[in-house]
């Protein structure tokens, strides 16, 4: 199977997963159970599948956030609400957000049901390969919801974390720290470096040190917003290729035709999320 099928399928449906970190329904649900602020809601809700883990586990599995950002809210979050309550609030928020964005018609339609079934097949295939993927494994331990739109969201969450853990592994093999991985990402031009730095809580001094370290290795060029060098582009491509290769096992049961069908079904749902504005660039600094 072409590894690009895994990348394209994940990317097409990713807005369905990612919207939970920005939706107002999530802010309200987390505040209602005592989580204070958007960052506490983010770190607690994403890590709760692993249980009430210490901050060090969140730092390790989330990889590219400044440790002080995590320590500011973990383990305080577990004193405010237990992981089971946080996960319940998160799923309720997803239900509310998708209902608002997609509408009852889409949620109850045959296309949603088919997309959920295809995505679940891929996610369940991923569940057979949890080795070395701790954040994914935590989510894989959760019970499946019943409603098709929540099945689709949970499946995409599993596939996202499965891919993400594999991506972290590839970055580590290339000898990159979390902040260095962000600098490289910013150098691609895909996301402004300032957004990546602010959203992950790194200081100007820490960012400058990471830039200088990568420049000394020949991975980025000169300037205030340094681009990737040829060596940097080669490095970046190696990481992306290995990430794709490690993710494809989840999608193999669908085959290329099944992946294309899932993308065809999911594209309209993802487009509705994007068009709603919940993923607008000015929100990306929140988490």
Give a quick set of tags describing it:
287 residues; mainly alpha; 70% helix; 0% strand
Structural overview:
The protein contains 15 helices and no strands. The chain is mainly alpha-helical and about 290 residues long. The protein has one domain. The radius of gyration is 19 Å and the shape is globular.
Briefly say what this structure is.
The protein has about 290 residues and is mainly alpha-helical.
Structural class assignment: mainly alpha
Please compute the radius of gyration using only Cα atoms. 19 Å
Q: If helices are DSSP runs of H or I spanning 4 or more residues, what is the number of helices?
A: 15
Beta content: under 5%
Q: Largest sheet, if any?
A: none
When the domains are counted, the total is: 1
How do the strands and helices of this protein lay out in sequence?
Layout (H helix, E strand, L loop, with lengths): L2 H16 L5 H9 L5 H10 L7 H8 L4 H5 L4 H5 L2 H25 L2 H17 L7 H7 L7 H26 L4 H10 L5 H8 L3 H13 L13 H22 L3 H21 L12
């Amino acid at each position: 199977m072409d590894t690009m099928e895994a990348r394209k399928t994940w990317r097409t449906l990713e807005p369905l997963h990612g919207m939970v970190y920005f939706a107002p329904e999530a802010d309200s649900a987390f505040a209602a159970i005592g989580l204070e602020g958007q960052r506490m809601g983010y770190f607690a809700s994403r890590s709760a599948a692993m249980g009430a883990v210490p901050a060090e586990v969140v730092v390790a599995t989330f990889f590219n956030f400044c440790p002080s950002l995590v320590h500011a809210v973990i383990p305080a979050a577990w004193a405010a609400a237990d992981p089971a309550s946080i996960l319940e609030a998160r799923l309720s928020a997803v239900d509310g957000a998708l209902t608002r964005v997609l509408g009852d018609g889409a949620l109850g339609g045959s296309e949603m049901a088919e997309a959920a079934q295809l995505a679940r097949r891929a996610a369940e295939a991923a569940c057979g390969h949890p080795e070395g993927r701790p954040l994914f494994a935590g989510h894989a331990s959760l019970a499946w919801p019943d409603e098709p739109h929540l099945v689709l969201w949970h499946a995409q969450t599993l596939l996202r974390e499965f891919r993400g853990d594999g991506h972290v592994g590839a970055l580590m093999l290339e000898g990159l720290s979390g902040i260095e991985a962000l600098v490289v990402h910013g150098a691609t031009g895909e996301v402004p470096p300032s957004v990546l730095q602010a959203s992950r809580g790194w200081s100007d001094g820490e960012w400058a040190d990471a830039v200088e370290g990568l420049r000394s290795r020949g991975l980025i060029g000169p300037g205030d917003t340094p681009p990737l060098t040829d060596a940097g582009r080669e490095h970046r491509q190696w990481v992306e290729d290995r990430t794709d290769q490690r993710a494809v096992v989840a999608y193999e049961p669908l085959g290329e035709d099944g992946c294309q069908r899932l993308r065809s079904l999911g594209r309209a749902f993802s487009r509705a999320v994007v068009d709603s504005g919940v993923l607008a660039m000015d929100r990306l600094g929140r988490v």
